[in-house]
Amino acid sequence: MKNKIQKGKIAFCTTCMNRLSHLQQTIEKNIQDNYLIGKVEFILLDYNSQDGLDKWISSVMRKYIDEGILVYYKTTEPTHYLRSHSRNMVFRLAKASILCNLDADNFLGKGFAGFMLNEFSKQDDIFYTNDYSFNDTFGRVCVRTGDFMAIRGYNETLKSYGYEDNDFLNRLVLHGLKPRSFQNPEFYGFVRHTDTERVSEEYIAKNLYKLYIAYVNPYTSYILIVYNNYTTEQYTLVANWHLYALDNSNSSTIYDSYLNEKIRTVIQGDPIKGIWNKANDKTTFQENGITFYQVEDYDFTARLLMLLASAINFNEVYRQMKNNSVINPNGFGKGVVYKNFDLSNKIILT
Are residues 201 and 91 in the same domain? Predict the structure, then answer.
């Protein structure tokens, strides 16, 4: 699929899988605060939500679809949320020369669209993000369509939560663009929510049976994931500020240095995969003298899954950098969508 790109126009691109409660608070407010006919469009990709998102959009937001400022797409293919893939899809569906990732829980603030259009009209070699405060607006990035395509989109080998934004920003800088950040505090609004909500639609969370942790030393832990199909994955999670499990002189890009991310939690070695059975179904057990404890607190489970997923993604980015790998060599953002509830019009992204 090829879109005719409209110059001097910005598209706010949102993906949503079962986050209707957030969109009900943000999307109409964002449209009203940034209503510039012919210069702004909001692209919403329903990533196979099962919480009534389609019905709500059809009944409450239809007027904005009719006016052409909101475009609604739905795909019925995904079984769990893939951040990079979903963002690549929605970016490819936009028709504007400037693309902005807008998470479902973000408030743009009044005048954000006009501010961005003005900034991009003055400089060619820039992209915009927040001020690196790492709150829930960190994922908001505005970039020209040509630059997005040139770096081949978000990295789809990064399957779970964390570091996909960092990797995307890294590659924009390496592409020769200068990072800029918006400073108006009104542009930093978001809906507060739990860490459990952040990862609830990820593959690990949706297929998790039990989670175990084992203390090895002050900077190393074993994390054992038991899936519903009783397969397992065991990871060694290391704080590399102490062991320097990665070669920090080579592992960071220019942008990592800017964000002071040389020191972080990483995965040491490859995961150990196995099979679980009912005989092992207990809250604690020992293996090679190490005691594994079941993680039963929901909030701690979510935080641990976030930390683990981010470390897995970081290690994958590091591996690709060392190997000088091509990002998304077989294409990105592929899939089938339907536009504005027209099920007779199937759009295939190849």
Answer: no
